[in-house]
Amino acid sequence: MTLINTEVVPFKATAYHNGKFVPVSEESFKGKWSVVVFYPADFTFVCPTELGDLADNYAEFQKLGVEIYGVSTDTHFTHKAWHDTSETIGKVKYPLIGDPSQQLARAFQVLIEEGEDAGLAYRGTFVIDPAGKIKTIEVHDNGIGRDAAELLRRVKAAQYVAAHPGEVCPAKWTEGAETLKPSFDLVGKI
């Protein structure tokens, strides 16, 4: 079953954010655009490059009214330790949610259930609209890192489509580029 256009299921978790442990729930995703980024584990190799890339682009997401949430099946205590000891993760200003019960990874369908990585999450990225509905999903095998610039483009496209009913963003669409208005007359003309 796809999660597209479904609401985030109820949950309660704790995040490490701005030097504090803070509660997070599905309500945290409502009223603004949110990006939830699952990654396998703290103190690893590809994960800090991704979280650091998001940290470097965080101001751009914030300008769009977007909050980012990093999630792994580690605890919020582990997130704090990683933040305190890694120069790259020390740049992270967005919440890092602990999911040791694996409830979020399972709900977002990114939990690895079997094999040597059982209990970890795949690299899942979810763009959530202000109503709490999932609008985009991207899931990678854990050896393939993601790109914050591409995620930023997808967020802008999702926001554009939400603000302009009846219009769609074609492949490689960027902010300010032409969109499409699906119609009978357009069939076969692209």
Automatic annotation (TrEMBL):
Catalytic activity, EC: 1.11.1.26
Reactions the enzyme catalyzes: a hydroperoxide + NADH + H(+) = an alcohol + NAD(+) + H2O
A Pfam cross-reference name: AhpC-TSA
Record flagged with keyword Cytoplasm: yes
Coiled coil: none
Domain Thioredoxin: 2-160
Example of a GO MF term: NADH-dependent peroxiredoxin activity
Family annotation (Gene3D superfamilies): Glutaredoxin
Broad class of the protein's primary localization: cytoplasm
Location(s) in or outside the cell: Cytoplasm
Keywords: Antioxidant, Cytoplasm, Disulfide bond, Oxidoreductase, Peroxidase, Redox-active center
Subunit structure: Homodimer; disulfide-linked, upon oxidation. 5 homodimers assemble to form a ring-like decamer.
Function: Thiol-specific peroxidase that catalyzes the reduction of hydrogen peroxide and organic hydroperoxides to water and alcohols, respectively. Plays a role in cell protection against oxidative stress by detoxifying peroxides.
Family affiliation: Belongs to the peroxiredoxin family. AhpC/Prx1 subfamily.
Protein name (record): Alkyl hydroperoxide reductase C
Originating organism: Variovorax ureilyticus
